[in-house]
Design brief:
5-stranded antiparallel beta sheet, 111 residues, single chain, 38% strand, 2 helices, OB fold (Dihydrolipoamide Acetyltransferase, E2P), mainly beta, two-stranded antiparallel sheet, 8% helix
Length: 111
Amino acid sequence: MEEISWSDFEKVALRVGTVLEVLDFPEARKPAYKLKVDFGEYGIKWSSAQITKHYSKEDLIGRQVIAVLNFPKKQIANFISEFLVTGFADQDGNIVLTAVERQVPNGSSLI
């Protein structure tokens, strides 16, 4: 594993946001949702996430997610993804979301 410096880590904008809306994303190559997330002072942003195996749309509303906000926007099918939702692959390769233990203000940074 390659080591990084503290300044490298500080460049990654890992922020918390609350899921406001979840839509199906049938145009995606792999099953995915479109997520609308409130990042407080960083605004409301959209992304897609391949998290359909472990989460229903209803499970995600109001849930806080941890995301990388400073990647470039990425076009996925006919949709522009504005951030990357973080998670870990389970034993079958399905994504389990990274989570905060308690509610924190939207836009909070991982420190």
